[in-house]
Amino acid sequence: MKQCPQCRHKALKITRYQDQEIDVCPSCRGLWFEAGEFDAALGNDEKEPVIEGKHRKAHESTDMSCPDCDATLDRHHLLKGYEVEIERCPAGHGIWIEREELDEALAAEHLHEPLERLNDKTSWRTWLFQFVTQMPVEYNIRPRQRPWVTWSLILVNTLIFVASMVDLRFAELSMQGAMIPEQISTGNHLTTLLTSQFLHGGWMHLIGNMYFLWIIGDNLEDALGHRRFLLAYLGCGTVAALAQTLIEPSSTIPVIGASGAIAGLFGLYLLWFRKASLTFMIFVYQKKVAPWVFFLIWLGINVFGMATGAQGVAYMAHIGGFVCGLVLGYLLLNWVRQNYPLLQLLNSDKVVVQR
């Protein structure tokens, strides 16, 4: 009769779990999965992450014995980058899982592909792309749905800009949608708080904004849903424009661009996708960094620009949009966790990302 590896002299009893016949200790409630049973319980017949993965090195030995062959069980992390521990027979007869870690162990089924994407390494292609464009490369999970709103926003912004470049009359008409702080502070032309978000002053202005919207918008739209994402985007952009008006209420300089709205997305992204990575380049050295590091550097640049009085950039709009995104992200954090279980799992301390 098989004995419990943890309680030593307690006999294991046969039970059924996830359509598999396994052994359970009636005392500590730990579970013994024979070879193939855990993978079958995961519905994972091909990837074989645990039992058949004999190449996985143990990180320490235990004082527990295999119920089948009495060999000393080795302790392993269930997946690379997922530090849930299981005890495994070195001969491959089975694995032992403590009851309190069972739910975390079963969650491994959903982590293979996300961990591969998060832990993907930089390459000469990513280096060359960032060196030439000075734009970061994103490492994040694949969205569950197509980001129709993100794509539509990019398309609309691009079409408006192209139309204003080829038709001077359209350009003059579109500039009536620019936000002028003096007008807003007196309660006039309030619609420009929205329309100004779709206008850009040059190709680089447009490309920079649309690129960031492209790389982070898809995941945020996936987390929020199409309608909520659009409302969050426009809402952060509106708050950004108001923040710029607050600091320069008498300014007659037109303020345009989606930067404030996208800065709001930065705040949401920082709070919700903590295990994602963005590359940062110092001269020729490219490094994956956590979102909070990347956006802290970005925030510092904006604070410095505002403090030194640099012209041509609405720094306060960026900062205001970012703060709005942080506040909104915090208020919606529990809702996002409930509606996006994978995101909550990835943000746990058990998941370790290589950067």
UniProtKB/TrEMBL annotation:
The chain crosses the membrane at residues 148-166, 198-217, 229-247, 253-273, 289-307, 313-333. Residues 3-41 form the Transcription factor zinc-finger domain. It is found in: Membrane. Keywords: Hydrolase, Membrane, Protease, Transmembrane, Transmembrane helix. InterPro entries: Peptidase_S54_rhomboid_dom, Rhomboid-like_sf, Rhomboid_protease_S54, TF_Znf. It is a multi-pass membrane protein. Pfam families: Rhomboid, Zn_ribbon_TFIIB. It comes from the Bacteria. Residues 189-334 form the Peptidase S54 rhomboid domain. One of its GO terms (biological process) is proteolysis. GO terms for cellular component: membrane. Its main location: membrane. GO terms for molecular function: serine-type endopeptidase activity. This is Membrane associated rhomboid family serine protease/Zn-finger nucleic acid-binding protein.
